[in-house]
Amino acid sequence: MAKAATKGTKKAAAKPAVKAKAAKPSGKTAPKATAKAAPKAKTRPAKKPTVKLSMLRPSVNNMTVRVFTRAAGLDHAETDAWGQTRTAEFLARNPAHLTPMIEDKGLPRGVLWESCAIMQYLANKHGLDKFYPKAPAKRAMIDSAMFYLVGTLYPYVARATYPALGFPQYAGEVGHSDAQPEKKSEAQQAAAAAIAEPLEVFHSFFRDGKPFIGGNNPSIADIRLAATLEFLAVIDYALPGWAKDYMAAIEKKLGKAYAEPASDVRGYIAHMKAQAGA
Ligand SMILES: N[C@@H](CCC(=O)N[C@@H](CS)C(=O)NCC(=O)O)C(=O)O
Questions:
Q1: How far is the CA of 224 from the centre of ligand 1 (A)?
Q2: Is the C-beta atom of 201 inside 6 A of ligand 1?
Q3: Is the per-residue pLDDT at 25 higher than 70?
Q4: Which atom in ligand 1 lies closest to the alpha carbon of residue 154?
């Protein structure tokens, strides 16, 4: 797998501000050395806590949250969970063994998984309305786009790409069974063919002539969609022109926040394709 280093933006914890003590007047005239006005105690803006994220670099579900934390300017500390998700220690905290997963003391069980739920939580907690609008109708469209992605588009993308990515498929999938290779290939191709319809729905319905689902700025639904589409490169899926432009527009708008996590996914895909071609 690709081994691009993660640049966490962990910063040193802010030191508690020291309260300036007013010196008691000891005499009539203050000695010269102490005549200087005490420096005003600076009021520091409340520091947002670091987002502790367990993640897998080649995964677009993880890329989604990694892009979001960077784009939103949230301090984040990433732990690579490769090979760790089924350990007793991880399962004790997260019985679903899924990443991305954040840890946060404010959560009833201390952890939260599911990429969309994580972005919604962090956006709510930090008032990031730009990515997740507060107005109920606007928010409903973002939610609808994300649920539609996770429930309809993503399963097609997984069936079409996981075999080429070397990821295990889900129980009950042909790709997971001991069916003949031709049957597996048929199922994979059928899934790839099914992607076009929901993809078009994101364009014609959710974007509806706007640059992004979120309007002029990428929302959490846009981050989720663009990251998902990254996987299609592994099967050389012919993305429609609008989707290529859309992905380029998100990357341009979010810059390094998008490009850095995307390079891990792209590096992994390049590695898998090179292996398949070797
Ligand atoms: N719907 C979930 C999917 C999460 C998921 O499938 N995570 C995979 C990586 S892509 C994982 O952590 N697998 C490790 C395991 O199952 O042990 C999301 O959007 O976060």
A1: 14
A2: no
A3: no
A4: 1
DSSP secondary structure of 219-270: -HHHHHHHHHHHGGGGGT----HHHHHHHHHHHHHHTHHHHHHHHHHHHHHH
Residue with CA closest to ligand 1 atom 13: 98
pLDDT in tens, 173-203: 888 888 899 999 999 999 999 999 999 999 9
One-letter amino acid identity for 197? E
- Ligand 1: which of 90, 98, 121, 228 to mutate, judged by most atoms within 8 Å of the beta carbon? 98
Q: Was domain 48-126 assigned CATH 1.10.10.10?
A: no
Q: Domain ranges in the chain?
A: 48-126, 136-277
Ligand 1 atom having least distance to the Cα of 98: 12
How is domain 136-277 classified at the CATH fold level?
Answer: Glutathione S-transferase Yfyf (Class Pi); Chain A, domain 2 (1.20.1050)
